[in-house]
Structures are given as structure tokens and as C-alpha cells.
Design brief:
This protein has about 300 residues and is of the alpha+beta class. The protein has 2 domains: about 5-200 and about 270-295, Creatinase/methionine aminopeptidase superfamily (Creatine Amidinohydrolase, Alpha-Beta Complex); about 200-270, Arc Repressor Mutant, subunit A (Orthogonal Bundle). The chain contains 7 helices and 18 strands. The chain has helices at about 5-30, 35-45, 105-125, 130-145, 220-230, 240-245, 250-260, and strands spanning about 50, 55-60, 60-65, 80-85, 85, 90, 95-100, 145-150, 155, 165-170, 185, 190, 200-210, 235-240, 265-270, 275-280, 280-285, 290-295. The protein has a 5-stranded antiparallel beta sheet. A hairpin with a 4-residue loop joins strand 17 and strand 18 (about 290-295). The protein is globular. Bound molecules: cobalt (II) ion (CO). Cobalt (II) ion binds next to loops.
Length: about 300
Amino acid sequence: MLPPKEELKKWKEAGKEAARLLSYARKIVKSGMPLLELIEKIEEKAKHRFAFPTNLSVDSIAAHYSPCYKDRNVAKGLLKIDLGINIDGFISDTACSVDLTEEKKHEELIKASEKALKEAIKIIKPGIKLCEIGKTIEDTIRSFGFLPIKNLTGHEIRRWKLHGSLKIPNYDDGSNFKLEEGMIIAVEPFATYGEGLVVNDEPSCIYRQLTFNYPIRDKKARKLLEFIEKNYKGLPFSSRWLVNCFGNSILVPLSLLEKSQILYRYPLLVEKTKAAVSQTEHTVLVTKNGCVILTKES
Ligand code: CO
């Protein structure tokens, strides 16, 4: 069943705004531009909250790089821009890859993930098995001579839940689960020159609250957790946002909450052989006879 009209309107609005922001980011990004400047410009343009900190991952970093408050890295190489909007818990998630090398050496790798997404969207409809989507993605990426990243997946999206229980594979994983009308899923093929696996690397600046209603003795940490709970409601957030609100002394209680495992700090995900990775992503709604792309500008 499709979501009720009122809800559908918000899913669509969240999708449209994310699409608008992504094309804005794509337009203004230049090689050598500080990532901090890029993310601040994107955030300035948003009318709503972000569903998660915008990821600006370069080359072999496949995901989870979001500039911290004193970030000094610049846009270069193969840049993935992955962002999402949250309107009252209705979430969108979309991504593109940009080749910032002078010789445009990553164009084919980017095309591979773009085409894989396109082909996947063509076959998505109620009754399709997840493994069939995965197979289409893998076959398309392999036809370019590259590999999909097997341990990164797309995901179902539910209200207030960026990662629902369903995973959308990027290869034939044998899953016989069938999609149903009304499901909202983010499909995100990743393509690489490397082995097709990511491993955890150093900690990122992205966090998420794991436990709720947890008694904390430290007053600053308690206050901070209250703020996080109220403002992010279990969705990922950036330590930079907190520093912008409270100054960098907030990093002390933040790390206390992390050490107490009340907060989870995402690690950077890096391709195992340090090869470059491309990514393309849309959020789609499964409809009666197919699907519609929600993260489209019009
Ligand atoms: Co996603």
C-alpha cells in the first residue's frame, strides 16, 4: 500500500529538496575548494534539517567522511557527495560522484555506478527479489570492467529511520525477499577499481545516539545528550554542528558519551586496496507497476 497522501507529500518534498541541494553542490564544487566551504554552502541552502551530515568522501574513502569543524582537506580526485533531508521524520537520501581530476580519469568508474543505478531502477517493482536488484547492479558494473562494493548496501527508509531493516545488495547475495508496493528504498551502487570491499578506518565526525533514557552523572554530558536526543532523534549528526552551537569545549562531554557507548561514532569506510570508489544513489518509492524516484528535482 502506498503511504497516505499527506505523508507522500512530505516524502516527495524531502526528496526534491535533497535533489536540488545535490545539483547545487555539483555546480559549485571545484578542485581545490575546501570541503568545509563546500559543506557550509550546502547547509546554508537547505530549508530543512539534514537527515545526516553530508558526506564528502574522496577517492578510496567510500563513505562517512564529513568535514569536522577544523577540517583542512580540499575537494579533489573522485568526490562523492551524499546527502539527505529530514522533514518531520520523512527522509531522503541521494548521492552523486564528481571527477575533479584534470585528465578526467574516473569518468568510466562514475558512469558504471550511474548506469547500475539506472538499470536497477528499471526493474524495481513489487515482487522483485532483492538478489535480482543486486545482480543487475553487479552485472552492470562488471560490464565496465569494475567491481561493486559487496559490503556496502542500499537500505529501506522508514519515518525517522534512515536505515530500515531491509538492505538492498549491490551483488547477487541470494536474498529472495520481495519488494512490496509502498516501500521506500535508497539504492546506492558503489563501483571500484579495487577488490570490492571496504574496511573500517579512522573515526569520522559523524555520530548517532544508540541508547535512550540512560542515566548520566556528568552534568555537561547529560545536558548535551538531552540536546542530541531532542534535535537529532536518533538520526546521525556531526560533531561540527555541536561545535557551531556550543564551541569546541563540547568535544569533552561528547567523547564521554562516546566512551560510555551511548553514542556511536562512525568509522570512515575505505576500500581495502585503497582504490578509488564511485557512488550514485536515489531514494525511490515502489509503486504498483514500478517505482518513482523521489530524489528528483521535478
Ligand atoms: Co543511503
